[in-house]
Amino acid sequence: MTEDFGTEIRETFDGALTALVAASIGIVVVGSLVQVSFGAFSMSLEQAWRAVFDPKVITNPDVLLALLLGNEIPVDLSSETTVVWSLRLPRVLVGILVGANLAISGAIFQAVTRNELASPYILGVSHGAGFAVLLTLIVFSGLSVFLPLFAALGGIVAFIIVYAIAWKGGTSPVRLVLAGFIVGTIFYSFQRGLFFFAQDIGVVQTALAWTTGSLTGTGWEQVRTILVPTLFIVPISLLVSRQLNLLLLGERTARSLGMSVERVRFALSALAILAASAAISVAGIVSFVGLIVPHIVRNIVGTDYRKLILGCLFAGPALVVGADVGARLALNPIQVPVGIVTGLVGGPYFLYLMRKRQKLGEL
């Protein structure tokens, strides 16, 4: 049994996946060093490197726990280390977690719908979750501690509406995309309408950041918010990779192999919605990550979801961290929301995918 497990690991981590993981880690590391080096408190890359790997922090569990929980740091740290670990590194960590969740969510949706154009953004889930978040921030601000839960509920409602609209004795790729566009547009209109109820300009600015997707101002509070669901989402998504592979074979084949297709599809959709909602609850609507990352990974490692999920787990953070570096440096000192950068990349890529598909199906 041990030999079988070792063989499976070797088959999963083939040359293509290993190269993808290594390249993604390299992008995240370089992007992280650039991120922690820029800000009002100026420091060189060497100083940033030393601050990130300060032994007072990385070898002291009490310091790491204090940072994560927002408690007082029990030791004296240098100015560079304090700035990096208290202010700048949390932004990188949020970007990593957001990228992983959105990429995994998109990969699952593409298997569940058997539609390579599916993603949380395209299917309207992102806009539904975003509306729930904005509604909480503007109208029910006292309940902001429950943002991840409300975001998940908003995403679930949006996805149910999309599926209901697209259902016609079954669904097709085109109908799902069109239904997602319709539902997303409606929820986006609701989002804009909520601005009329905001009395505080600070709330309006925060709401605008949510609608465009931004990592500006994120800290350890946001890390805590997204870390808990991520610790559940990542291992579960890896465990269900076999079920995702079965769904790609078609409903009839999956049923013949003993799968309860509708129950599995519902459970996997809920997992994908939770992943997207966790990301949206801390960073807003970072568009197209869930669409383009699974495609890039699929082109490199193939369609096997054992490899695809692992690839998305690393490639998603690489895209978001890289895009955030570009967003931060493009018009420095003005910080462009990362969602604008991913949208500029993802929009043309979506059109490319549309043109690449020779047969999308009939309406």
Q: What structural category characterises the helix and strand content? A: mainly alpha
> How would you characterize the largest beta sheet?
none
Rg result: 21 Å
pLDDT averaged over residues: 83
Number of strands: 0
From the spread of the alpha carbons, the general shape counts as globular
Total count of helical runs of at least 4 residues: 17
Approximate helicity band: over 70%
Percent of residues in beta strands: under 5%
CA-CA gap between termini: 48 Å
Question: Which sequence of SSEs, written as H and E, runs from N to C?
Answer: HHHHHHHHHHHHHHHHH
Low-confidence stretches: 1-6, 359-363
Describe the structure.
With about 375 residues, the protein is mostly helical. Helix content is about 75%, strand content about 0%. It is built from 17 helices and no strands. Helix 6 (about 80-110) packs across helix 15 (about 290-300) and helix 7 packs antiparallel against helix 10. It is globular. It starts with a helix and ends in a 7-residue tail after the last helix.
